[in-house]
Amino acid sequence: MEPKRRQTDARLEIFKQACREYGLKITPQRVAIFQEFHGSAEHPSAVMIYDKVRQDYPHISLDTVSRTLTTLNKIGLAKEVEFSGEARRFDPNLDRHHHFRCIKCGHIVDFNNEIYDSIVIPEELKMKYTVLEKKVCLEGICDRCRAGD
Predict the structure, then answer these.
(1) Model pTM?
(2) Cα separations in angstroms, 66 against 17, 27, 29, 123, 145
(3) What DSSP element (H or E) covers 91?
(4) What is the sign, positive or negative, of the torsion defined by CA atoms of 136, 82, 27, 22?
(5) CA-wise closest residue to 81 among 139, 119, 137, 134
(6) What is the residue range of 137's domain?
(7) How far apart are CA 100 and CA 139, in angstroms?
(8) What would the pLDDT profile of 4-42 be if each residue is shown by its tens digit?
């Protein structure tokens, strides 16, 4: 079996196990949404996934796709990418990383940076809040958009 196929099969099994654990039905539509999401090279929005999944499931609703992505986020199989001013985007990459988003085209890029990983939480925040995750989101203009200027 090909490595990519094994990885896809393993992810699907993790998805099915999580559904059983959280009492969620494993429907063909949920499986299709999950597979399209985890097969995406982007940080898709619900609309992006909806446009692809409805080719095989023409009666699926945007609300179903949106709720499924939100559920994947809640059960730890997706992360919501937080940028203001646009539709919610989701990330299938659960490893520690940070994001850069182009403010012109909306393209989002993952990047790693050990310095950002080790940001020190200010004492006044640590006293009042429990920080669960540290992530940096940078915004600017990508090379493609700069070249088009």
Answers:
(1) 0.83
(2) 21, 15, 12, 37, 29
(3) strand 89-91
(4) positive
(5) 137
(6) 95-148
(7) 6
(8) 556 678 889 999 999 999 999 999 999 999 999 999 988
Side chain identity at residue 98, one-letter code: H
Do residue 144 and residue 108 come from a single domain? Answer: yes
Only one residue has tokens 């958009």, namely 145
| Residue found by looking up tokens 């493609």 in the block | 144
Edge-to-edge, what's the strand order for the sheet holding 98-102? 108-111, 98-102, 137-140
Radius of gyration over every alpha carbon of the chain, rounded to an integer in angstroms: 17
Two structure tokens written together for 33: 């949404």
Does 104 lie in the same domain as 63? no
Q: Which two tokens stand for residue 21?
A: 């654990």
